[in-house]
């Protein structure tokens, strides 16, 4: 009987956690955007736009290379032309960058901009270090590392530069830019060399490393300051 009662308590706790986790998660997202100065009534539109935008890839350029001897003559040999098309994902790249530009514009100062640059450089270096290219999957990286690094870099640089509430902007914008540059852009040439036909920068989806880096870094800053 005791085991049955304990099992029912565990099951009830699991169901409650499953029920309330999305609520707390979206409340956290709203609080994070609020710390950035974005009105809460705009947040659902941003989330919906990011969700829909994650399915939209905007072509940037096409990279060509000659690899296998199959099709075209080139220096008396037959080579196949391999193409890699590079895209910018609307929900995972363009919208987060747009938000970063907006919040930086609204709270602009040279010191905040400098903190954003410092944070972005540090996050880019760490992201490049931990990013791994997995064939048929894309670029992977431990999810918790970029937001922690972004929050710490923003808090330290923000404290030194005395930017006050601008530390939230530094953590969000610096984290977003740093992950995009370090994980995606700096590994772009390697992915192209692997012969991937489609390369989408920021294209892992709405709740991928880029999106969560921005949100979680702001939440972490709230705990650190």
Would you kindly provide a written description of the structure presented here, covering whatever features stand out?
With 225 residues, the chain is of the alpha+beta class. It has one domain. The chain has eight helices and seven strands; from the N terminus they run H-H-E-E-E-E-H-H-E-E-H-H-H-E-H. The strands form three sheets. The chain has a three-stranded mixed β-sheet with strand order 1-4-7. A two-stranded antiparallel ribbon has the order 2-3. Helix 2 runs antiparallel to helix 3 and helix 6 packs antiparallel against helix 8. It is globular and about 50 Å long. The N terminus is likely disordered.
Layout of secondary structure:
Elements: H1 2-35, H2 43-53, E1 57-66, E2 72-74, E3 77-79, E4 81-89, H3 90-106, H4 110-130, E5 132-134, E6 138-140, H5 145-161, H6 166-184, H7 188-193, E7 198-201, H8 209-224
Parallel strand pairs: 4-7
Antiparallel strand pairs: 1-4, 2-3, 5-6
């Amino acid at each position: 009987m005791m085991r049955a009662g304990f099992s029912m308590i565990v099951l009830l706790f699991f169901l409650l956690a499953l029920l309330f986790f999305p609520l707390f998660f979206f409340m956290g997202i709203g609080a994070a955007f609020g710390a950035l100065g974005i009105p809460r009534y705009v947040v659902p539109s941003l989330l919906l736009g990011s969700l829909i935008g994650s399915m939209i890839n905007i072509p940037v350029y096409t990279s060509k290379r000659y690899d296998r001897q199959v099709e075209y003559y080139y220096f008396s040999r037959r080579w196949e032309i391999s193409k890699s098309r590079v895209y910018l994902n609307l929900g995972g790249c363009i919208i987060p960058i747009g938000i970063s530009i907006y919040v930086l514009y609204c709270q602009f100062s040279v010191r905040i901009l400098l903190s954003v640059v410092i944070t972005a450089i540090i996050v880019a270096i760490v992201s490049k270090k931990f990013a791994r290219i997995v064939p048929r999957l894309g670029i992977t990286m431990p999810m918790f590392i970029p937001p922690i690094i972004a929050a710490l870099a923003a808090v330290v640089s923000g404290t030194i530069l005395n930017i006050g509430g601008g530390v939230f902007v530094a953590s969000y914008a610096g984290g977003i830019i740093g992950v995009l540059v370090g994980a995606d852009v700096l590994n772009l040439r390697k992915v192209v060399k692997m012969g991937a036909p489609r390369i989408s920068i920021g294209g892992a989806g709405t709740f991928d490393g880029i999106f969560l880096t921005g949100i979680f870094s702001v939440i972490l800053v709230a705990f650190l300051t």
